[in-house]
Specification:
By secondary structure, the chain is mainly alpha-helical. Helix content is 74%, strand content 0%.
Length: 65
């Protein structure tokens, strides 16, 4: 399968950068999710901190689905 993306340059430069660099953003999101899981599993957190991290992790999962 071959996919071709067309952009009107320079007007759509930002859109092109997002399309080309999407893997970088995804990698950052995965790193944040891993950090959250580790903090929840191993960190000494208050109830409010744990709840907030769980909420943020859930929001990330929801937005990615």
């Amino acid at each position: 399968m071959k996919v071709t993306l067309d952009f009107n340059f320079p007007e759509e430069r930002e859109e092109m950068e997002f399309a080309v660099s999407g893997y970088k953003y995804f990698a950052v999101i995965q790193d944040v999710k891993k950090y959250i899981r580790t903090k929840i599993k191993c960190g000494e957190l208050s109830i409010n901190e744990r709840k907030l991290l769980e909420e943020i992790g859930g929001l990330i999962d929801k937005e990615l689905s």
